[in-house]
Structure formats: structure tokens, C-alpha cells
Amino acid sequence: MSISAKTITKLMLVTFVTASVAACTTKKKEEVVTPTKPVEKEEVAPYVPPKADPIEKPIAPVGVVPGSQQDFVVNVGDRVFFDLDSSSIRADAQEILDKQAAWLVRYPAVKIRIEGNADERGTREYNFALGARRAEAVSQYLTSKGVVPARIATISYGKENPINTAANEEGWAQNRNGHTTLTEGAK
Amino acid sequence: MKPFMKRLNIWLAAAVVVFVPLVGTVAVAQTPLKGEVTEGVIEPMPIAIDINASGSDLGDKISRVVMADLERSGFFKPIDPNAFIEQNLDVNATPTYASWKTINAQALANGLATVDASGRLQVDFRLWDIFSEKQLLGMSLTATPENWRRIAHKIADAIYEKLTGEEGYFDTRIVFVAESGARGKRVKRLAIMDQDGANPSYLTDGSYKVMTPRFSADSQEVAYMALRDDSARIYIFNIETGRQESVGQIQGMVFAPRFSPDGTKLAFSVAQGGNTDIYLMDLRSRSTKRLTREPAIDTSPSFSADGSTIVFNSDRGGSPQIYAMNLDGSGVRRISFGGGIYSTPVFSPKGDLIAFTKQAGGRFSIGVMNPDGSGEKLLTSSFLEEGPTWAPNGRYIMFFREPPGAMPSLWTVEVTGRIERAVPYPGGASDPAWSPRLK
């Protein structure tokens, strides 16, 4: 049985090769009869400078692309924190907001949304109002440092978007913040 | 043997001690609630409920719903039906009083549920005073069989009204926010259920966060806040039709909606440029008037029962407190003066009290005060609780409570603070809105 199976396979191969050769032969025949037109007018081809070869290109830096969301988060800082029931910009927040403003001036195509957040130790509606105050405080600071107001949108998320869900002072301190999200134009 | 009516009177006297001070506080605003409440003892009245149905378990189901309603009110102690000596009572015959006295029932409600030829459910029931040996109430209710729960709630309402003298509140619904998912990534959907937690269903799909729903006076419409990444808007949702519409094209964040008692106006907050003020919209003409112009936070408006006054939350004095003003924004006066932070003032539908949230000593409390701010009384307190809403009879307050790191859940507390109950719902639940009585 195994012998006759091999034989059949060989026979099939032979058939396939023969068919292929026949196909090649037919193609070659057609190519041979292509006619050529006589040259009526001589044209000088414009000079094409040789392409630079090898081509030099900078490679993307390892890590963060300047002007990107990641650049903003890692090298600038996208969040500033507030004291309890306060919307005053603290000294540590000023440092971050100065860097945010400088970065935004460098990348003028970027638009931002400032989101005011509050901790859970307040009632829902009051905290929406408090978050709105915090977002505005950040917006005004950035504007005072040269960011065009038209690039800034503000909103309050009240106590709805905690970043630290621990029910203690440490968690609440982190949840009292102003968060800057790049909504347009980041690389 | 003691006359039975007298024993009922003893129970009623105990109840009166609780009910009367509330009436008293309206007339004499300075009367402190606290002393009288500690003197009054709520002794729940033992009551037997026995609705029968031939050939189905509908009678038992109705009985169970009536018993659960009355138990949760705090004023009744339904007797276990297994203790009943007299079985299969005829709704058209006088009960054997002695057998009910033996098990110490002070009142008996018995009835019969039948389905007539046209398929309608009919429940006839009578309420008996076992000790004075007389009928207090006889009533027949009909509905389509799928509305058997509403019949049960109406029976409970009738019993509650007859025996306490207060308006019933069981045939009502709750619109609330159903919460799911981890904190920080919460899905918040608008949901509705019966007052006792039955028949829950969602009204929104969870693609955006929904908060602070509030009923209109006719119970068909709910105003709520929708929070998306880049906007906060108020919608009015019609429960019957499922249609909803955005309220106006107002710039800024719009939140904290509340209907006027006659349903013609909507008060709400608008945050513009970091400042939050209260606005009033005429819902027919859609004309909007700004009521406050302070650089302070002004939010959480709520109308008095007669519609003439708005109470609200403001930090214009330095810390969040409760203020009142006239409908045109004039006559602003501070009404909360206790130590701590006050917010979420909500007028009782009866107009006699304001419910509020107070923060002091690291805890949150739900309390009530008179419309002028006097007679403050804290009813309940925990790690975090807020969002009071009134039962239509002005006797109970529903709110939500959130233990540290846990899902929020709904609770009710009676205005004296002596009766507190969890509202059954299997998931997270917050921001309750108690409907008016259904029609």
C-alpha cells in the first residue's frame, strides 16, 4: 500500500512540473513579438540628484516623547493638591503649575481641561461647588502665567473621582486636587 | 379584665407622646424635641394580618407585604400567623375576639382576595379593634393581578392611617442612584423601586454618571444631574414615557435641582468661573432668574411647602451653613447656628421641619430643625451619611449611608430618631428621592 501511495505522489509531481513548464513556454512566446516605435524626438531627462544614501534620521528617545501626554504627566506633573475645604494654591502647587504653564506655552497647540476634585468628607452638591472653585483657581493661575484662556476648559467632578480610595486622611488629602487633562494637540 | 379600648388608648397615648411634640414645635418654636422624645416610649402595637385567597398563595403574599410595611414603620409588631388560633376567617363575619385576645393581638386586619370573571383582583378587608370589639375599617380594593403589591401597600396605608392618625406612605416609590464597580470607577445609574425595595429597575444605562434625582409634586417627573467628562447638566426624566430633556442651554456646570411644590419651577445651582449661585427657572416659559450673587458657594436649594421660601447651603459666612431667602432672592438670613458644618437642607412636605446633614467631630449626622433654625435634633449619625429625602407624610426621612470603603446603602429614620431601618436593595444605592403618594 505504502509503495503505491508513493508512486502516486511521484506521478502527481511529474504532472505538475510538466504543466508549469508548458505555462512558461507560452508566456515567453508572447513576449518575443513586442514591436518598438522609431524615435521621433530626443528628450533630455532632467537631472535627478542621487538620493542620500545612507539616510540619517534621529530615533525616538528612549522613554517620553516631548509634548506628549506622558511628557506632561512624568516631567511636569498633572495634579496639584489642596487643603481641606480650600481652593488656595499652595506653594507646592505653584511649583507644579509654573512648570505646567511653561510647558503649555512651549506647546501652544495643546488644549486642556482642568478638573476640580474634592474628598468624600463633604456632601455631594457642596463638593461639586468646591471642585469648581479649585478648577477655577488652577485656571486663573495658569492664565496669569501666560496660558491663553481659550485653551482652558474647567469642570468639577466633586467627590466622584477619588484617586485614592483609602478612607483616611492620607487618601482624602490626595483626593482634594486639581487635575489637568490634555484634551487636544498633545504629541 | 381591663377594657380593651383602654389598652389601645394606652398604646395610642404612647404614640401621642411622640406625635404631639412635632405639632407643638410649630406653634412654640423654641420647644426642644429631645426631652419629650426620651420620655415617650414607642411600644409597637401587636397586630394580626390575615388575608386569605382560595386556591392561590396571593393572600399570603399580600399579608406578608402588609406585615413588612407595618413593621418597618416602627409602630406595629405583626404577630406570626403560625400563632393564630382562629383560622380561615370569613371576611363578612365578626371574628372570635377571645381567640385574638389570647394571642395578645390589639388589632386584626382580615380579608379575602378573589379574581373575578374579567380577571381583576379584588381584596376585601376589615380592620378590627380586638379590645373594644368593633370594626374600625371596611374596604374593598380592585386592581389587575400584577398590581397585587400596590393593593397590599394601600391596605397597609389604610391600617396605618386609622391607627396612628398620620397619613400613609407605603404606596410610594423611590428613585435613587444604583452604584456598582470599584470606588473611583463607579457606574452610577438612575433606578426606581417600590418604597419597600420591590420591583427595582434601571432608568439610565450607566454610560454617564447620574446623581441627585428629585421628584416633582405629581410623581411622574424626576430632575437629576448627569455628569460626563466635560459637562454637568440637569435633565428632567418622565418616568411614565421614558422621555427626558435637558434643562436649558445654561453655560457652566448645572446641578442640585429641586422642583417647587407646585411643579412649575425648578431651582438649581450654576457654577461659572468657579462661583456657584442659585437660579430659578420657570418650567413653562423656561425663563431663568439668578437668585444669589455672592462670591460664595450657594447650592442645594429646597422650597418650603407653601413655595414662598428657599432654604439653601452657603459658605458666605466662612463655613457651610443653612440659609433661607424669599423666592426673589431677597431677605437672606442664616438659620443654622450650631457648631459644625451644615448642608443639604430639605423642607418637609408638611412644612414643619427642615432635614439637613451636619458634620461635626469627624462624623456625619442627619437631623431636623424648625424652619427658623430652632429645635435642632440629630436623628442618626455615622462615618458618612447624607442626602435626606422626606416620605410624603413628613414622618420619615430616607438617606444614604456609606461605611468606610464600603458601598452606600439606603436607610429610613423616623423624625423622632427612634426608628431606623435599612431599605432593602441588593447593590450599592445612594441619593434617594421619595415619591409623593401614587394615584
What is the fold's blueprint, element by element?
The complex is a heterodimer of chains A (187) and B (439).
Chain A: H1 2-32, H2 69-76, E1 79-81, H3 91-106, E2 111-117, H4 124-144, E3 152-158, H5 169-175, E4 177-184
Parallel strand pairs in A: 2-3
Antiparallel strand pairs in A: 1-4, 2-4
Helix pairs in contact in A: 3-4
Chain B: H1 4-27, H2 33-39, E1 45-53, H3 58-73, E2 76-78, H4 97-102, E3 107-115, E4 121-129, E5 134-143, H5 148-164, E6 173-180, E7 187-194, E8 201-202, E9 209-215, E10 221-228, E11 231-238, E12 244-246, E13 253-259, E14 265-272, E15 275-282, E16 288-290, E17 298-303, E18 309-314, E19 321-326, E20 333-334, E21 341-347, E22 354-360, E23 363-369, E24 377-382, E25 385-390, E26 396-401, E27 409-414, E28 420-422, E29 428-434
Parallel strand pairs in B: 1-2, 1-3
Antiparallel strand pairs in B: 3-4, 4-5, 6-7, 6-29, 7-8, 9-10, 10-11, 11-12, 13-14, 14-15, 15-16, 17-18, 18-19, 19-20, 21-22, 22-23, 23-24, 25-26, 26-27, 27-28
Helix pairs in contact in B: 1-2, 3-5
- Largest sheet composition of chain B: 5 strands, mixed
Secondary structural class of chain A: alpha+beta
Alpha-carbon distance between the two ends of chain B = 44 Å
DSSP summary: helix tally of chain B? 5
Unreliable spans of chain A: 11-33
Strand order of the largest sheet of chain B: 2-1-3-4-5
Helicity range of chain A: 40-55%
**How many individual domains of chain B?**
2
* Terminal residue distance of chain A: 68 Å
The CATH architecture of the largest domain in chain B would be: 6 Propeller
The gyration radius over C-alpha positions of chain A equals 35 Å
Tally the helices of chain A: what do you get?
A: 5
What CATH calls the topology of one domain in chain A is 60s Ribosomal Protein L30, Chain: A
Overall body shape of chain B: elongated
| Strands side by side in the biggest sheet of chain A | 1-4-2-3
List the chains of the largest interface with their residue counts: A-B, 34 and 42 residues
